[in-house]
Amino acid sequence: MNTNYLFVDKTALEKGHEYVTLLSNHEGHVLAVFRGHLDASSDASLTQLPADALRQTQSICMDMSPAYIKAEKKALPNAYRKIAFDHFHVVKMLTEAVNRIRKDELFRLAPSAHRTRFYWLKRRDNLSEADRETVNKLIPAMINTVLAWYFREQARNIWHGNSVRGTKQRWKDWIALAKASGLKPLMAVADTIENKLWGILNAMHFGLSNG
Question: Does position 34 have pLDDT exceeding 70, yes or no?
């Protein structure tokens, strides 16, 4: 049983039904499944593994759930060097911030702007030429949305940069600028990233993602 790189995540048994916690390895093997309260399930899924298997674990990738962090710190030696926060959840937080800011600005705009939601949720590289032209026309009227979107894309660039070296300082610079933006949803995400930066850097170092 290979436990060098572990992944923990929750998933629904069926749509609208209760969740289970899955523990798997980088080879795609499910090592443990546990149904129940989040605190209990994250703890129990790890305790199902032998102690010697956990000692050889180099990293474990997960979301930023306090319950998961608590369980991993309890089970893994040197947990702060091993816990890696999944890239998906960081992008999700930033996308939700962009969407909240977009909704706030829409109250002042013409109805045509209300049909552009998916433009702001996509990466710029994934927009068609026509979509980019539409976004460019909205920039003067949706400057806060554009600014939040820009911060999200810069965060992506930091994560997917060619080198991990110097990344910590790039994140610190990003955090400082995001906090200075005055956009509360973005500032809240910046606070979270600042508090969880150690696990984000671990994820970048190991190149891990639950995806």
Answer: yes
Fold of 5-84: Nucleotidyltransferase; domain 5 (3.30.420)
Bridge-based pairing state of the strands 59-62 and 83-85: parallel
pLDDT digits (tens, 9 = 90+) for 35-53: 755 555 555 567 777 778 7
Q: Where are the domains of the chain?
A: 5-84, 87-206
Burial of 179 (0-12, 13-18, 19+ CB in 10 A): middle
Q: 115: exposed, middle or buried (C-beta count within 10 Å: 0-12, 13-18, 19+)?
A: exposed
Helix (H) or strand (E) segment spanning residue 85? strand 83-85
- The residue count of the chain comes to 211
